[in-house]
Amino acid sequence: MTKSTAGIHHITAFVGNAQANVDFYAGILGLRLVKKTINFDAPEVYHLYFGNEVGSPGTAITFFPFEGARKGRVGGGQVGYTTFAVPEGALPFWEERLSKFAIPYEETQRFGETYLRFQDRDGLKLELVARKEGPNSKWSFGGVPADKAIKGFGGAVLYSMAPEQTMHALEHVLGLERIGEEQGMVRFRAHGDLGNLVDVNASVMGRGHGGAGTVHHIAWRAADREDQESWRAFVAEQGFHPTPIVDRQYFTAIYFREAGEILFEIATDPPGFELDEPYETLGEQLMLPAWYEPHREQINQGLPPFEIRVLEEDKQ
Fold it and tell me: Which InterPro entries does this entry report, sorted A to Z (predicted)?
């Protein structure tokens, strides 16, 4: 049996202050907060999901904001850079926007493409690339019109403590195609049109440390629950140790750590974020799974308030 994922489902990271996180990803980057919930394993911490207008698979970056969190260190066993795709011709807009908010950036080249590299307020490493493929976002917010908005993921750059084994997992477990190598990077392609180009730093990287400004895990797409059960069996056959299927309300998930120490998740495309909220009000209310509803008041009291707001720089 062989299998192949369509690409990245979501990427989840640790950050510090919730309001600063929302201001950066909604206020500056123009993403939509599509879900405000909690870390199901630590209900005293938010789990915030940002993406296109509905947080489609391949667009959702998610965060665990923890006030006073220790600073992490990006390194081996992590996603090094999270790559966002914007429409063709939109990079000049984003250069101006990053400058407007005094966010330092650098322009780099890789596999014939131009990238704008920068960091969020917690030091999470991000980059923007212009791509034709993948549907445009329909969401606009603040100073970001829909025709310049982030589509979703372009992909990611992986930092591995055993890059040859990580690349083997990408190609022979997840079913990505190895399509190029240059300047110490190896590129893999999935068959989807977002979150489909993954680059691996071919050098062994020193171990990273989790904390604010680092990625916790990268999730790959499964078509549905039946496909996910097949994925779980297949991953186990390849010698990995996947978890049981876990209910994350908006998808179900399995997790396993590959040999380069990166935590992989495989998540289902359905049911999605409109499961418990209508399109018009996605992300506005704190949504809890049924098993936490009896504790809503206590949970609410322990979470810091924040608001989605147009920033001052966009009001001028």
Answer: Extradiol_RC_dioxygenase, Glyas_Bleomycin-R_OHBP_Dase, Glyas_Fos-R_dOase_dom, VOC_core
Q: Tokens standing for 225?
A: 């629950």
**Tokens 């698979």 correspond to what residue?**
57
Fill in the amino acid letter for 204.
V
Dist. CA 116–CA 135, nearest whole Å: 21
79: its two tokens: 């996603």
Element (H, E) at 178: strand 177-182
Query: Mind listing the pLDDT tens digit for each residue in 208-230?
Result: 999 999 999 999 999 999 999 99
Please check whether residue 134 is in contact with residue 168, taking contact to mean a CB–CB distance below 8 angstroms: no
For the chain, give every domain's residue range.
8-314
Q: What is the pLDDT of residues 60-80, one digit of tens each?
A: 999 999 999 999 999 999 999
Count CA within 13 A, CB hemisphere, residue 126: 27
CATH T-level assignment (fold) for domain 8-314: 2,3-Dihydroxybiphenyl 1,2-Dioxygenase; domain 1 (3.10.180)
Backbone angles phi, psi at 83, to 5 degrees: -105, 125
DSSP 314: G
Q: Do the beta carbons of residue 36 and residue 283 sit within 8 Å?
A: yes
Of 262, 238, 237, 110, nearest in space to 180 by CA: 110
The 8-class DSSP code of residue 269 comes to S
Q: What is the pTM of this model?
A: 0.97
